[in-house]
Amino acid sequence: MTDKIPMFKEEIDDIPVPVDKLDAIIAKTIQESVQKRKRSIGKKLMMSVGAAVATFALLIGSATVSPVMADFVSQIPVVGSIFSESGDRGLKQVSDLGLTQVIGESKTVKGNTITIDEVFFDGTRLTVGYSLTSEEPLEEFYVDPGMKVTIDGKNFSFGGSSGETEITPTYRTGIYHIEPSDIEVPEKFKLGLFFEGKGGERWKFTLPVKTQTGAELVTINETQQAGNIGLDISNLEVSPVGLRLTYNTVVEESEFPLGAYIKFRAVDSSGAELAVSSEGGGYGEHVNGKVYIKGNSLFEPIDENVTTLTITPYVDLPSEGGGVEFDAAGNEKPIDFEPYKGEEIKFESFTVPLP
Amino acid sequence: MATQRKLVARAKKGDAEAFQALIHEEKEKLYKMAYVYVQNEDDALEVFQETVYKAFKSITTLKNNDYFSTWVTRILINAAIALLKKKQKIVPLSHEILENMGETWHMKREEQLDLLEAMDEIEEKYKTVLLLRFYEDYTIPQISNFLNCPEGTVKTNIRRGLASLKQKMKGVYTDDRQNSHV
Questions:
Q1: Looking at residue B57, what is its pLDDT?
Q2: What are A204's strand-pairing partners?
Q3: Partner residue facing A168 (CB), from B61, B92, B131
Q4: How much is the pLDDT for B26?
Q5: Closest Cα to residue A328, out of A156, A72, A204?
Q6: How far apart are CA A214 and CA A178, in angstroms?
Q7: Which of A65-79, A138-152, A178-192 is predicted most confidently?
Q8: B110 pLDDT tier (thresholds 50, 70, 90)
Q9: What domains are there in chain B, each with its CATH number?
Q10: DSSP H or E segment with residue A73
């Protein structure tokens, strides 16, 4: 050790602390959380009926209830809060408006419990919120992010993303976004979810899901050509989950697959840029030497007084990357990456009136 | 400790004032630890806010009322690492920018914060064990329990962390400013 390292504690203690700011944060955070708790108490009482049933079944299922188990069961969090606390404004809005399906179904395998908290399907994106509670601390991504999903018992291809938040070492929450691509999803269906844990656990759920409709559709039909990409933006769906822009791209098969890297910037009539909930990716097809990609970008909900949106498409090329592709049987195939070396691609901005 | 235990019990029943009292006890230490990870006031405040929010929301999941301090420290470290990961994804800094930042950093902070600067440059796993061992004064078994990893790994990481820290600090002291941002 150098002679400076024994000063470790002293040097860290010397970091100036903005005490007033800390006090303000504490007061504000607690006050807001308490108000939120009061506001949602009516809704949560309704939901906890479902949670109580699940808990009851869990206790009956274990022949002898150990004190650890009883203690653990008493700590199962109230269901229906993962979307509203995810930091995604669209998900919070749909959850607060009661448009999501609150599930509260738990399965325990080897002492680790997954609870499906909330599900939402708006016809394009299926979002599942879950929590994982364990008796012992679990490592990060203990549950395999490559979950298997079925609709009415059928496998299908999908794009998606997942994320998890560790609240404590024995309690974490997660959200999956799934965008089915090669299946016609019925309005009502049975969703099969198959989670796998690193300890070999398998949790299986079958949940009835109902599509939430009622989005207002704004037809756009904007067509542009820039460099080798043909871009067609068909429409904008406005719903409580946010604003979803649907687009198609076409690129010659022999060219760099620029169509997969289209993104959009949206600025409202007051000049504020909209936050993006999800973007990129999409579902591609090779037809007659061309690659067609259908994709969508979801922006967070906007204020009611916004009248127009100015949208600018752009190409967001990564400097490094690659990825994986899953087929309908769930097989994984790596996608190689080669950087784009062609000319700069620029699209025109266009304005969309809002309903 | 008995008072803290009572406060935790009250906080778990939803008593916001009790929770507030608990956080006030820990706030300075939590902020300083956050600062070591993120190295600027704005981000340290963000990490602190996230920690208060998560701790308040999930206090009912704290099993042993004696361990509030350890538990909230764990939440803070997770929040700090999450913020760093998020920033890494969003701002891919070029080599040039990093070099310029190094210059400014030295000019502003001069030498009294060399340890912090060196801490910023060592791997997260080392940073965490060094903070727990030398700032929080945890024992090896306590760190092992805290991080849920074997004591041998903790010892190795402390040894390697110290070696890494020593090397970075030596770099700062002996090299000229141009080369000092290791």
A1: 84
A2: A194
A3: B61
A4: 94
A5: A156
A6: 20
A7: A178-192
A8: very low
A9: 1-92 (1.10.1740.10), 94-182 (1.10.10.10)
A10: helix A67-74
Rounded CA gap, B31 and B76, in Å?
A: 9
CA B77 to chain CA mean position, Å: 5
In chain A, pLDDT over 90 holds for what percent of residues? 19
The answer to whether A135 contacts chain B (CB < 8 Å) is no
Residue A86 corresponds to which tokens in the numbers above? 């995810």
Domain residue limits at A132: 16-210
B114 neighbourhood in chain A, CB within 8 Å: 4
- In this structure, are residues A167 and B61 in contact, taking their beta carbons and an 8 Å threshold? yes
**In angstroms, rounded to a whole number, what is the distance separating the alpha carbons of residues A267 and A286?**
33
- Tokens representing residue A183 in the block: 């299946």
ipTM of the modeled complex: 0.77
Q: Are A252 and A290 in contact (CB under 8 A)?
A: yes
Q: What is the residue-averaged pLDDT of chain A?
A: 76
Q: Measure B7 CA to nearest chain A CA, in Å.
A: 15
Cβ of residue A18 closer than 8 Å to a chain B Cβ = yes
Answer whether residue A320 is part of any domain.
yes
- The predicted pLDDT at position A66 comes to 36
Read off the CATH number of the domain in which A177 is found. Answer: 2.60.40.1630
Is the same domain home to A33 and A176? Answer: yes
Q: pLDDT for A209-244, tens place per residue? A: 998 877 788 888 899 998 888 999 988 988 888 898
